[in-house]
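Morning. Coffee machine broken again, so started the prediction first thing and wrote up yesterday's gels while waiting. Chain of 103 residues, entered below exactly as on the submission form.
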Amino acid sequence: MKRLPKIEVIYSNPPEIPSSVTIRRWVSGQKYEREVKPNDLIGTTEAVHILKITLRHLYRLVENRILKPIRKKSKIYFKLGDIEKLAKERGVWPSGKGPWLTG
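Came back before lunch.
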């Protein structure tokens, strides 16, 4: 079974919609960090982490046309702005007092 990388999402302070986030990933002991703006693309692993759902649930959201994927070859990506909007609707986008670090 494939092990998912550890991911942290650092939201802007305060987390507004739309906003940019910093995504930190640890893969094979190496830390990768990038800033993602609302129109930038994120992968399925990052999307399920932000939405706090399973990968299967994410695919159901695509099947039911709640989320619009962007397909590149065999990969599926999403705009961060779309994920942010859905996270706010689901009540999982951080609000109120910080810190806004998830992990």
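The domain at 6-95 is CATH 3.10.260 (Mlu1-box Binding Protein; DNA-binding Domain). Going to sketch it on the whiteboard this afternoon.
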